[in-house]
Amino acid sequence: MGTADIMPGVSGGTIALITGIYERLVHSISKINFKFIKPFLKGDMSLSWKILKEEVDFSLFIPLGLGIGLAIISMAQVMSFMLENYTAFTYAFFSGLILASAYIVYKEIDGICVKGFISLLAGLIGAFLFVGLNPIQANHSLPIIFLSGLLAICAMILPGISGAFVLLLLNQYEYMLNALNNVSLPDIFAFGAGAALGIVVFSRVLDYLLRNYESFTMAFLVGLMLGTLRLPYQKLEITDSGSLLPLLIIGLVGFGLVMVLEKKFRYIDY
After folding, report:
1. pLDDT tens digits, 132-180
2. What are the TM regions of this chain, as residue ranges (predicted)?
3. End-to-end Cα spacing for the chain
């Protein structure tokens, strides 16, 4: 998820779906109500810890958080290099990931009715138009970075919508990559605070939709993933017919990787 979250065009939420932890992740985040803070401030540590253990799924968040953090720190420079020097190949790989993910989610839908198809179409059109937006020339002040973190994390938890792409639209992507590489603590903390607020609020909305309108929500997510294929397509600058084959092969590798992961994790009880 951490590697995907720093790739414009791929969502960490998509990886969560592939590995079978998506609904648990959303529900676990939505359960956090911060009720443990009140007894903590009163000095009742035992009650605070008891409530904290009830609210927070540590068995999920600790390994997941460590994995995401390690990937973001270690992959930031790698992604900068790949996107700068092998743009078409990188986005061909992304295309395979996204297409396979959309197929996997589609299989989980128990039949698509007219309303489900409309939901899928709405997601597809919305994502297609969103990807076509021009970047906003925003500054890099701490309030703007805070807002960018809030908006990006909402996208990151949605399969199909890339939080990194949201940062591109807000003119913050390269700036935040440099902030990570240079360990700019004010920028990192401002972004992290916005992300924390965004994920706590938005996860509640998602959890409600998945519990009450699961088929429509999943159909919408399939549409989102298909619509965002516009971004990697725009990046595939094919100069001659001879360069098409390696791009197709790399795309198929990405597709196959997702299918292998899905089969590996499908029957694991989280």
Report:
1. 766 566 678 888 889 888 888 877 777 666 677 778 777 787 788 788 7
2. 58-76, 88-106, 112-133, 145-168, 188-206, 213-231, 243-261
3. 17
Rounded to whole angstroms, the Cα distance separating 20 from 267 reads 9
Q: Report yes or no: 163 and 11 within 8 Å, Cβ to Cβ.
A: yes
Task: State both tokens at 115.
Answer: 């309303």
Q: How many domains does the chain have?
A: 1
Entry pTM: 0.65
Domain membership of residue 226 (yes or no) is yes
**CA 158 – CA 228 distance, rounded (Å):** 12
Residue 270 has pLDDT above 50, yes or no: no
C-alpha to C-alpha distance for 21 and 15, rounded to whole angstroms: 9
Host domain of residue 186: 2-265
Residue 270 lies in a domain: no
The DSSP code for 38 is H
Does residue 55 come out as left (phi exceeding 0), alpha (psi in the -120 to 50 range) or beta?
alpha
Over residues 6-34, mean pLDDT: 78
- Please give the Cα distance from 83 to 198 (Å, whole number): 27
Alpha helices in 108-184 (DSSP H): 114-131, 142-156, 163-169, 173-181
Look at residue 183 and tell me if it is in a domain: yes
Angle 152-158-161 from CA coordinates, rounded to 5°: 65
For residue 75, being part of any structural domain is answered with: yes
Q: What is the mean pLDDT of residues 89-93?
A: 82
The torsion angles phi and psi of 138, rounded to 5 degrees, stand at -85, 155
